[in-house]
Write a structure and sequence with these properties.
Elements lengths: L1 E7 L5 H6 L2 E8 L1 E9 H8 L9 E5 L2 E12 L6 E8 L6 E10 L5 H4 L3 E4 L3 E6 L8 E4 L9 E2 L10 E2 L7 E6 L9 H9 L1
């Protein structure tokens, strides 16, 4: 869990804050939005973590701590440095919607891929509903034993009891196996020559 030191933002302009090495931000949800100032180095380090958008972040103001999720960052179009950050307050009673990446493993153990089939991924990230404290960093589909005619379906994806797909019907097919073309089929050029012979 990342812990970021924050201060209440006063009258300083965003430009002044950035010149001091700080980043302006906002926290919303649950109560009135709060304008905050974050330490630029701390925020950049947290942002580099792959779980930045799926893990709980604690914002610490003095001795007080508040649990949040990162919702958005605004980057400078030239330097790619963070120039603003948005956070949402969370608690253990909430259930939220979040997109989680889907990762396919053990391609080398798939019968179809061994025979030259190609994995065609349809769903790269799945929107799920869960507790903000139970967001999976990724959803893993094991391709071991998958044959050429097998369907790679959402229902075969192992999800924890707390994680529910938001649009199960729309995302039912996660991926397909594209069968290899026959090596005996003529190429387009060969077919064209045959028609003119």
């Amino acid at each position: 869990m990342s812990v970021l030191s924050v201060q209440e933002r006063n009258s300083e302009s965003p430009r002044e804050l950035r010149l001091q090495g700080n980043i302006p931000g906002i926290v919303y949800g649950g109560s009135a939005p709060a304008r905050i100032t974050l330490n630029g180095k701390e925020l950049s380090k947290a942002y580099e973590n792959v779980s930045y958008y799926t893990g709980i972040i604690q914002l610490q103001t003095g001795k007080a701590k508040e649990d949040v999720l990162a919702k958005a960052v605004q980057l400078d179009p030239v330097t790619d440095r963070i120039i603003h950050a948005d956070f949402m307050r969370v608690n253990k009673e909430m259930r939220i919607r979040v997109r989680v990446p889907v990762r396919f493993i053990n391609e080398e153990k798939s019968i179809a891929i061994k025979r030259g089939g190609v994995l065609n991924i349809i769903v790269h990230a799945l929107e799920v509903k869960c507790s903000p404290y139970q967001i999976p960093s990724e959803l893993v589909y094991d391709l071991s034993g998958v044959g050429m005619t097998d369907q790679i379906l959402l229902e075969k994806l192992k999800l924890s009891k707390d994680v529910t797909p938001v649009n199960a019907a729309r995302n039912r097919i996660l991926a397909t196996i594209v069968a290899p073309t026959s090596g005996n089929e003529p190429t387009a050029a060969e077919a064209a020559e045959g028609t003119t012979a």
